[in-house]
Amino acid sequence: MTFTINGLILAGGRSQRMGTDKANIVLAGKTLLQRCIESLRPQVNELAISSNEPSAAVQSCHLPVLADRISGYPGPLAGIHAGLCHWPDDYVLSVAVDLPFLPADLVERLSRAIVPGKCCYANTGDGHALALLCPPGLHEALAEALEHNQRSVKNWLKAHGTAVHFEDTETSSLGFNINTPEDLAVAEAKLKN
């Protein structure tokens, strides 16, 4: 089976716990957005960023920026919906910008678990990271969920997803995301070791 996989970096959150736009946060000399782009670029065909109010960091990447097609900042599902609408015939890998340690084989592992009509998502044992591979055609199911004010990624994936287990390694930690200044300090320490 041959198909195209494009990548979408979800960078449209409000970053309330962090107090600043997560895309701009610097970790070991690179922004989280730069880290995400460098991790995903070799794994996908095309790359875009989901953001309703693109920061200078987002604009400086010279990648397409996709705004939500559904108003009211309904969360990451709206960004994923925008990606599926942008690439209606392709698979879309959606990844949160606050995941600094993406595995180099993320796309490969998720694509091996493809089930027709379902997203494959990364499950890290203590929940799941916001990293999922969606097939073409799910934009309508996403739009319907959002129209009914269903904004929970976890709940949506219960009906439309298949879990793929990921464990931490020396070079990747998909279950680790940066939500607070304390998380950033832990990530800095992890990179020094």
Task: Write the CATH architecture name.
Answer: Alpha-Beta Complex
Question: What's the CATH superfamily, by name?
Answer: Spore Coat Polysaccharide Biosynthesis Protein SpsA, Chain A
The CATH topology label is Spore Coat Polysaccharide Biosynthesis Protein SpsA, Chain A
Task: Calculate the terminal CA-CA distance, rounded to whole Å.
Answer: 41 Å
Strand percentage, roughly?
15-25%
Features:
193 residues, alpha/beta, Spore Coat Polysaccharide Biosynthesis Protein SpsA, Chain A, two-stranded antiparallel sheet
Structural write-up:
This protein has helices at 32-40, 56-60, 76-86, 106-112, 139-147, 153-160, 181-192, and strands at 5-10, 26-27, 30-31, 47-50, 65-66, 91-96, 119-123, 128-134, 161-165. It is an alpha/beta fold. It has a single domain, classed as Spore Coat Polysaccharide Biosynthesis Protein SpsA, Chain A. The strands form two sheets. Strands 5-4-1-6-8-7-9 form a seven-stranded mixed beta sheet, sandwiched between helices. Strands 2-3 form a two-stranded antiparallel ribbon. Helix 3 packs antiparallel against helix 5. The longest helix is centred in the last third of the chain and has 12 residues, at 181-192. The radius of gyration is 15 Å and the shape is globular.
